[in-house]
Write a structure and sequence with these properties.
- The protein is mostly helical.
- It folds into 3 domains: 192 residues, Growth Hormone, Chain: A; 42 residues, no CATH class; 120 residues, no CATH class.
- The protein has 15 helices and 2 strands.
- Strands 1-2 form a two-stranded antiparallel sheet.
- Strand 1 and strand 2 form a beta hairpin.
- Helix 14 packs antiparallel against helix 15.
- It starts with 13 loop residues before the first helix and ends with a helix.
- The mean pLDDT is 88.
Length: 368
């Protein structure tokens, strides 16, 4: 790690990572915004088939990071993992742009899932690697910039790419995200001489080994010892406590599984619902795949509102806004948003012509 005196300066290499992230997120969300419409209107897949492909792709994007993390931690390191898998990412975009077929769709999504999923656990960790005790007070600031760049890229791509699909067809609409991913990879590569690169450890975390040892040696447990503490006969106390910490948050992550399963519906089911609604708003015609652009707008608007107004007000009422309480409130709100969308769908099924503005209310609740 870098060891300069406490300067208060932002590491200059952060600009390469943030630039890479903004361009990469533009490419990903731009491609994803037209995916369902491309499948139903250009490849003529049935709606249920399009949803299946979309959600399988979403699953892959959040399952492959497990292997991306192992690849980075044990073999390649974060820098090489990001660089090499970004090339896979570019290949996937190229396949989608060049081959308007089901085979091209599946091949392109496979390469994108490997690239996007593989780099997902590495980028934010690489940001952290660039800091040390001399400037780690700037981490909150840089992660705010990092998060803003994600929403910035998402917003503009979700507006531009659906219009491009309508005006110029799939080749151009998928080609632009591909070009942006190429730009993202180039930006990242340009910072290669500036990054603090932490080498791979070459060994696993022994997470499963600790659990396995504890399971098979319960007979050796002493009075007062916890379930995992018997593993301290073989492993260091630090490793055992690390496993305990991970297991303690499993319940939280299990609860969030349902949240994200519902949340990702907005890229498929909600887009298909918007396709059946009146999308003339204040004299403008909105493409159904443009509607999700409201999400990053709301994120960038509601984030400071909640941080500086809503949460302080709740705290003044004597209610502590802990992360778990925020998560619980979020799960209630997402349920409300789906009741809202379900009610709208029931009216559509009865033949009513409903303005897409009514769906925007559900977006506000979902994002909050």
């Amino acid at each position: 790690m870098v060891t300069e005196a406490r300067t208060g300066k932002m590491p200059k290499q952060i600009s390469y990572i943030v630039g890479n992230e903004a361009a990469e997120r533009f490419s990903f969300y731009g491609m994803r915004s037209i995916l369902v419409i491309f499948m139903t209107q250009y490849l003529f897949l049935k709606e249920h088939q399009a949803k299946e492909v979309f959600h399988l792709f979403a699953f892959a994007n959040y399952f492959i990071p497990v292997f991306g993390a192992i690849l980075a931690d044990r073999f390649l390191g974060r820098y090489k993992t990001i660089l090499y898998l970004s090339i896979f990412y570019c290949v996937g975009h190229g396949i989608l742009a060049l081959f308007e077929s089901e085979l091209g769709l599946y091949a392109g999504l496979f390469f994108i899932a490997v690239g996007s999923g593989g780099i997902k656990p590495c980028v934010s960790a690489l940001v952290g690697d660039q800091f040390n005790r001399s400037n780690d007070h700037l981490l909150d600031q840089v992660y705010s910039i990092f998060y803003f760049s994600i929403n910035f890229g998402s917003f503009f791509s979700t507006l531009l790419i659906p219009w491009t699909l309508k005006a110029y067809g799939p080749g151009v609409a998928f080609g632009i995200p591909g070009i942006l991913m190429g730009v993202a990879t180039l930006i990242f590569w340009l910072g290669r001489k500036e990054y603090v690169v932490v080498p791979p450890s070459g060994e696993g975390s022994q997470f499963l080994s600790v659990i396995g040892y504890a399971l098979t040696h319960q007979k050796d447990r002493k009075p007062g010892q916890r379930f995992l503490e018997v593993a301290e006969q073989k492993f260091s106390k630090e490793k055992v406590r690390g496993v305990q910490a991970v297991l303690s948050i499993f319940a939280v992550f299990v609860a969030t599984t349902g949240f994200w399963a519902l949340y990702d519906q907005h890229g498929a089911s909600w887009v298909l619902q918007a396709e059946k609604m009146d999308r003339e708003v204040w004299g403008f015609h909105l493409e159904s795949s443009m509607i999700p652009a409201i999400n990053p707008i709301l994120v960038m608007t509601l984030l400071p509102l909640f941080s500086f107004v809503v949460y302080p007000w709740i705290e003044k009422l004597g209610i502590k806004t802990t992360p778990l309480r925020k998560m619980g409130a979020g799960m209630v709100l997402i349920a409300v948003s789906f009741f809202w969308v379900g009610f709208l769908q029931s009216r559509i099924d009865l033949g009513e012509q409903i303005s897409v503005v009514w769906q925007l209310g559900a977006w506000v609740i979902l994002t909050a």
